[in-house]
Amino acid sequence: MSDQQIFYPVLVMAGLTFVVWWRMFFTRVGQMKRERIHPQAVATSAQAASKLTDSRAADNFRNLFELPVLFYLAVVVAAQADLVTPVTVGLAWAFVLMRVLHSWIQCTYNKVMHRFKAYIAGGAALWTMWGVIAWGLLK
């Protein structure tokens, strides 16, 4: 298996982050234009929360810098330690697919229990990936 295959899920995560950023940008700018909200009126997160009513994309954008940070690190560690296997690549894809699903749910209809199930499944894939990497490093 090519070590490069572990980076394909990273490209998808970066693409997802860009798409969510784009959605957040257009949602915020659109509301600010429609409601004539001056940019200075939303200079802090507290001000933004009080004036910008649709925070789904912004909330999801922040989520993409929580667990995914550990995903990015796991990919680099796996690649550098020669631990790229079908298992680590499969777990990386599982994590990314669950993050895509999580983002789609949060940015659209936002049913918490649906989103939570995607979050748990993605988290399980990530923690399992770290377990496989730790096992490979320690043996």
Automatic annotation (TrEMBL):
Record field: transmembrane: 6-26, 69-96, 116-138
Gene Ontology cellular component annotations, sorted alphabetically: membrane
SUPFAM superfamilies: MAPEG domain-like
InterPro entries: MAPEG-like_dom_sf, Membr-assoc_MAPEG
Keyword terms of this UniProt record: Membrane, Transmembrane, Transmembrane helix
Keyword Oxidoreductase: no
Chief site of localization: membrane
Location(s) in or outside the cell: Membrane
Pfam families, sorted: MAPEG
Full protein name: MAPEG family protein
Protein source organism: Agrilutibacter solisilvae
